[in-house]
Write a structure and sequence with these properties.
With 209 residues, the chain is mainly beta. It has helices at residues 26-34, 61-79; strands at residues 4-10, 13-19, 47-48, 84-95, 111-118, 122-127, 153-158, 163-167, 171-174, 182-195, 204-206.
């Protein structure tokens, strides 16, 4: 099955949407269900894995490869940069019917990547304070068709096997889980290596993992 790749230019934020990646196997889903979680109930928010480096496990090597393959495409074909990055954190969340992940962003890293291990009737909502055309003057425009430039939020429908990659500072939230279970694997990326130019007195070296 051919993977469908889309670039979403929401208010100038480079969001990469990859559909029809390989779906998680039953063994991978069972492994994700059995890892330790911080909270053991499902009131409103999802359960979060205790560990913040779950992609180190060999049981998730296929999911890790899917995330890395998509992230490398994002660097090379979307951003078109040659810098090296590494996975600084990875985690899992499980939601039951009625749960949702409220608006949040991911500090202390540059890019976020999300793999939907099990997701039906799901969506991720991106939110900004003002639309792109309201940054200079906060006018209330008469919008005839909502698009990437005149909207302050953007919703992407997602399914099992989909991957989303976006800048970590971009606020996002999930839709309410309408099915019995939603399982998501998240990861964050930070740059490593020397960046900048020594001759311009601005070079620094960022050591990764």
């Amino acid at each position: 099955m051919e993977i469908n790749k889309h670039i979403i230019n929401f208010a100038g934020n480079p969001i990469f949407y990859s559909q029809k990646n390989p779906m998680a196997s039953n063994k991978e889903l069972d492994f994700l269900r059995k890892i330790k979680f911080r909270n053991n109930d499902f009131k409103i928010r999802p359960r979060f894995s205790k560990e913040s480096h779950i992609l180190k496990y060999k049981q998730l090597k296929n999911i890790k490869k899917i995330l890395l393959d998509n992230f490398n495409y994002y660097l090379n074909k979307v951003l078109e940069i040659n810098n090296s990055f590494y996975i600084c954190n990875s985690w899992a969340t499980i939601q039951k019917k009625g749960n949702f992940h409220n608006g949040h962003h991911h500090p202390n890293h540059i890019f976020s990547a999300v793999y939907y291990a099990k997701a039906e009737k799901s969506s991720l909502i991106f939110q900004i304070e003002k639309s792109k055309i309201q940054e200079g003057f906060l006018f209330q425009y008469n919008v005839k068709n909502y698009n990437y430039f005149n909207s302050s939020s953007w919703t992407l429908e997602v399914n099992s096997g989909d991957v989303l990659i976006f800048p970590g500072h971009l606020q996002h939230s999930s839709s309410i889980c309408e099915t019995d279970e939603r399982i998501v694997v998240g990861s964050s990326f930070f740059i490593k290596e020397k960046i900048g130019l020594e001759g311009d007195y601005n070079d620094i070296y960022l050591k990764g993992e």
